[in-house]
Amino acid sequence: MHISNKQRKPDIIIIGAGIIGLSIAYHILEADPKVSITILEKEKMLGLGSTGIGTGSIRHRFSSSLPRRLSLLSRGFFLNFEDVFETPIEYSEKGGLMLATHPALWDQCKLTAEQAEADGIPMKLLEQEELLTKFPYLDRDRLLGGTFCPWDAYADPYAVLAALYAGIRRKGATVEFGREATKVISDGDRVKGVQTRQGTILSPFIVNATGPYASQLAATAGIELPVQPFRRQVYVCTNPIDIPPANPLMIDLATGFYLHQEVSAKTVLLGGTDQYTWPGFGEEVDKSVAEDFFLAAIEIIPSAIDIKWLRTYTGICEQTPDFLPIIGEAPDLNGFILANGFSGHGFMHAPAAGSIVADLILKGRTEQIDLKLVHPDRFDKVLILES
Ligand SMILES: Cc1cc2nc3c(=O)[nH]c(=O)nc-3n(C[C@H](O)[C@H](O)[C@H](O)COP(=O)(O)OP(=O)(O)OC[C@H]3O[C@@H](n4cnc5c(N)ncnc54)[C@H](O)[C@@H]3O)c2cc1C
């Protein structure tokens, strides 16, 4: 096989072919088609990381401004995706409902509705009566109100990933499956390349887009990154009888419980922030915590008592201590770019992340967000380890 110079020494190596890595490649090549990019993926096929297992929610209601900004920056990409990539991704703006069950959360709803509107995101505050008139299947006795965002949406994560993969290959990127990056190598304070079992590849820019494995990869360069893997369980159930098709995504702010309807409307996905999970890569299903999920469901939607639990699957999420991502150049290691720790929002924020990293690599700066909020050095734990 003839190996060109660009394959031996690409301008940029991206490690990880999940939604973040592919979005970064796409945005770089959109801005500058001449850049040579090699993506290394340890698995033998696409979609085996977090992205393939994700539930595809895209939302805009967050209590801090940074994730709202990332959602805003990402929306156009999803809206235009099917035209640009000529591929269906089941994108549908079915709206999102955040529910408050006690006064402090209701106050929070009022505040975030104001903040979202100020940011240009439509967010309707629904008082109890209006909420229950619009969504009569919710529990009348528990809910005080909520917010509704008509821009919240669903898209099929695997379809997006596959279309991006085809798109970046058409633009000339090389994706090497079954090629794990075993070490990021440096020369003084600058990255030099990546070691793999199949040999070393040199490049002046290495992007860490390894999802839940971000801290493991960073550690090979002597960098401690506070990104931890957490298991998330998803319960696939029959649809509660009184919930109509194309129902909005619903999240109970008190428990983190969510109900997410599949596009077919034949099943719903239930899940939430699993209180009993701990950092690790274990993906086994823990049925002992299911009762909590179903109790949380019934408290919000009483008719959920009659749904049938069909199956449970798990996936691993990459989480930072403040639930905000890490985007930027690693402290003291020039050319090592981090795009990690999206804390359960990596699918919806991948377009923004890709565009911001493209700015950082091609222009050395970005005006899209305040980089201090996502900079790796905001955590005390980001340390350069003695080697
Ligand atoms: C159950 C579940 C539901 C979710 N639902 C949503 C949702 O509704 N909306 C949303 O926005 N987000 C959701 N998320 C989060 C979202 O899926 C992730 O934030 C996002 O997929 C992260 O993308 P990524 O590209 O960083 O990681 P990944 O998709 O995991 O990609 C990283 C890739 O790097 C590869 N890799 C790792 N180490 C190496 C190495 N050393 N060398 C080479 N390759 C390597 C991996 O094999 C993997 O393919 C969910 C996550 C889970 C688990």
Features:
387 residues; alpha+beta; FAD/NAD(P)-binding domain; D-Amino Acid Oxidase, Chain A, domain 2; 2 domains; 8-stranded mixed β-sheet; 6-stranded mixed β-sheet; 21 strands; disordered C terminus
Concise description?
This protein has 10 helices and 21 strands. The chain is an alpha+beta fold and 387 residues long. It has 2 domains: 181 residues, FAD/NAD(P)-binding domain, CATH 3.50.50; 149 residues, D-Amino Acid Oxidase, subunit A, domain 2 (D-Amino Acid Oxidase, Chain A, domain 2, 2-Layer Sandwich), CATH 3.30.9.10.
Question: Can you describe what's shown?
Answer:
- This protein is of the alpha+beta class and 387 residues long.
- It folds into two domains: 5-52 and 157-226 and 322-384, FAD/NAD(P)-binding domain, CATH 3.50.50; 94-151 and 229-319, D-Amino Acid Oxidase, Chain A, domain 2 (2-Layer Sandwich), CATH 3.30.9.10.
- It contains ten helices and 21 strands.
- The strands form five sheets. The protein has an eight-stranded mixed beta sheet with strand order 5-6-4-15-16-17-14-18. A six-stranded mixed beta sheet has the order 8-2-1-12-20-19. It has a three-stranded antiparallel beta sheet with strand order 9-10-11, with no helix packed on it.
- A hairpin with a 5-residue loop joins strand 15 and strand 16.
- The protein is globular and about 65 Å long.
- The two termini are 37 Å apart.
- Mean pLDDT is 92; it is low at 381-387.
- It binds flavin-adenine dinucleotide (FAD).
